[in-house]
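Q:
Got a chain?
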Amino acid sequence: MAKQAYKYPRIFVACSYRYPFDKKGLERCLRSLPVTVHFLDSKLKTKQLFRLVRDALAQADFSLFDVSTWNPNVSMELGLAEGLDSRYYILLNSKQKKGVPSDLQGLQRIEYTSFHGRERSLEFQFVKYFLLGLTYTRRISTKIGPDPKREKLLIAALRVLGFLRDHDEIKLDQVQGIAEGLNLRLADRKKVLKALSEVAVVRLQKGSKYYVLDRDLFKKWT
């Protein structure tokens, strides 16, 4: 059965939970976008972890393995994904890759220098490689049209959808905080909500300043 065109991708993420790796930063970055992210409890025993990782890989649309700082659990989970022929991708913070085994460094990977804001950030590259091919993302991008800030406007729009995954409504004033770090003006933020409305992903409630996610569409995504 074909997957719905509108669906939050379900992602299994494996990474180190220890300093100096910023697991919370990685989690905030991914959860700000319209995806469903699954991390496992780092305190699980090996046998229990093995079973849960296998189940998580089977349920995910794809998996991400961040090998920025070396961690034996991540290595085990990556090996399991390879053995099960699961769809996965490797992430690597180019500022933190000391200690990563050379065989992993030689694999094709997505390198990032920060989580948000810049062209080489994880957020920009995640949208480019994983979300841009989705139907609703392409439609939103088309509605935004040619604009020097097109990539930033698209990211802001996707952050709005990520926000509405967890909240009932949003108003224009809140978009400023959601779009933090993208340097968008008021006119840009209005354009973001207009593009989302024209694609019919969100709608302005009658007699209200609040936008809501289209519930029928939401059911298809989830």
Notes: The chain is about 45% helix and 15% strand. The two ends are 16 Å apart (CA to CA).
